[in-house]
Amino acid sequence: MTVLTKARPARPRAAAPTGAAARRRRRATPYLLLAPGALVLLLVVGYPLVRLVLISFQDYGLRTLFTGTAEWTGLDNYAKVLGSDEIVPMLLRTAALCVAMAGGTLAIGTAVALLMRALGPRMRTAVTLVLITAWAVPNVAATMLWTWLFQPTYGVVNWMLTRLRVFGDFGQYDWTAHTWSSLVLVWLLVVWQSVPFVALTLYAGLTQIPADYYEAAALDGAGAWRRFRVVTVPFLRSILLLVTVLSVVWDFNVFNQIWLLTHGGPDGATSTLVVWSFTRAFASQSYGQGAAIAVLATGLLMALTWYYVRRLVRTGEEL
Amino acid sequence: MKRSRPARIALNAAAAAFCAVWIFPVYWMVNSAFKPAGDMLTATPRFLPFPLTLGNFAGAVGKPHFPAYLANSLIVTGVVVAVAIAVAFLAAVALTRFTFPGRRGFLIGVLAVQMIPGPALLIPLFLSLKSLDLLDTLLGLIVTYTAFVLPLTIWVMRGFLHGVPKELEEAAMVDGAGQLTVMRTILLPLVTPGIIAASVFSFIVAWNDYLYAYVMMKDQSRYTLPVWLASFSTNLGTDYGGLIAGSTLFALPVVAFFMIIQRRLVAGMTAGAVKG
């Protein structure tokens, strides 16, 4: 920079835009810079979202794929979906599984974060490395690994459970053949993969709390539980809200783990709204109904996270 | 807060127990991957992989089409990362260096997009790509993934650009440098850490996705690695040695990446969901 200044000492502002044309160009610059990103998002997220809603009002099936024309059927798809025998158990299962997975993740994640703070540096590093390793294993690889860990006959988990002599002989136990064990299988996998993010994020938040606060609380005679409630929880409120919402969103949308472990079975026992939308559309070739389910699922998720989204938009003042 | 000796022992024991449980699946994956075929299916599992063998890896890599799957995954991931970073950088410059009508709306839009469940877009995207004849093409996957990673990459880059003082560019402008020169020679080098963080996140989305690739790639030679892994089990049974070795190979680059950027990991992940 100094070199440049020496080279042109006489006209330091020579390149600054002047005149109406240059001003217009300058005003257009941010839009030009934004254009590629906005275009991709509009085409690949915005347009499909609109189309999803449109399809949900159409009789979009196998025939449509070939003829290219779909008939408008009003609320037919919604009526079929909401009137089906599956809808109530499906909603309950989706909600219960989501709550169980998010709740388990948050409980274990919080416990691990608190544990990490209490540990010495070496043990803490060990926990961090373990968390990062588990976090990094790709979804599909972890799911395939699960099929091997819980494989009937040769799965190491079955072998260990049998050796415990508490639950009886698990040697030939097929986890995916029974309702509850399938749910447990999916739950274990999702929680195993989700705890690292929650634990590391909460731990990062914990390290920001000044030690004085705890000392002051201790001087006032507050016990460990009270210190946790009075100092830790209020300090972590926004981070807790964030990880809770993200956990709910992610666990609501779990697909790979369920699909690859159980295909939603046995007999639909592990199917959630997301899996149902997928099978309606791609197995039954009823894209209209699949879209209706997806719209319902999106609406439900939006309703669940409404409070958080509103807060985000409000902080938008400072964007 | 000093802790008594028994309390410290209890804490360390709890931490050790947690580590043992949480690392066990990964340990078992690596252990199984290196086991000779005869040691995989034993009534009593073998807890150490000796004698070591690379047979499972050779078997996985030697499956038909493996080089094609690897190439598909590498091409898709590479292009997505490069395009997403370039597009996100330009957008982030606009968002941090200019004030213009629509700026706040765009930012809120970017935030809102992240709340849309990914699987919900599957049906319309599948039908649109089908009518455009883009199913079974890498281009279709690349465009899809790019759009999915853009909100987060824009957000992360914006955070990093915020940290670069405006005075630096103004000085350069005063010295006669054009806007493009400023972007290239001043902003770009300073946001390199942001570019690395954003690249890793884009890499992971593109590398790990199963659902979209599974639906859009019907032609077997077009599979990406996750779809290939999931197709290991057939009606005739599953080659667990090959499957687990393949999973290990597939997971390895991601684990390495996570280890390298571990310090930025949490900051980057939360940056997409909270402001600044």
Automatic annotation (TrEMBL), chain A:
Keyword rRNA-binding set for record: no
Top-level taxon: Bacteria
Region Disordered, residue ranges: 1-22
Topological type in the membrane: Multi-pass membrane protein
Domain ABC transmembrane type-1 residue range list: 91-308
Record's keyword annotation contains Zinc: no
Keyword line: Cell membrane, Membrane, Transmembrane, Transmembrane helix, Transport
UniProt xrefs under InterPro entries: MetI-like (IPR000515), MetI-like_sf (IPR035906), UgpAE/MalFG_permease (IPR050809)
Transmembrane spans: 31-50, 90-115, 127-150, 184-206, 227-250, 287-309
Name of the protein in its database record: Sugar ABC transporter permease
Species in which this protein is naturally found: Actinomadura parmotrematis
Source taxonomy: Bacteria, Bacillati, Actinomycetota, Actinomycetes, Streptosporangiales
TrEMBL record, chain B:
Family the UniProt entry places it in: Belongs to the binding-protein-dependent transport system permease family.
Main location: membrane
UniProt-recorded name of the protein: Carbohydrate ABC transporter permease
Protein keywords: Cell membrane, Membrane, Transmembrane, Transmembrane helix, Transport
Organism from which the protein derives: Actinomadura parmotrematis
Transmembrane segments: 9-30, 69-94, 106-127, 139-161, 182-207, 240-261
Membrane topology: Multi-pass membrane protein
Residues in ABC transmembrane type-1 domain copies: 70-261
Pfam families associated with the record: BPD_transp_1
Localisation: Cell membrane
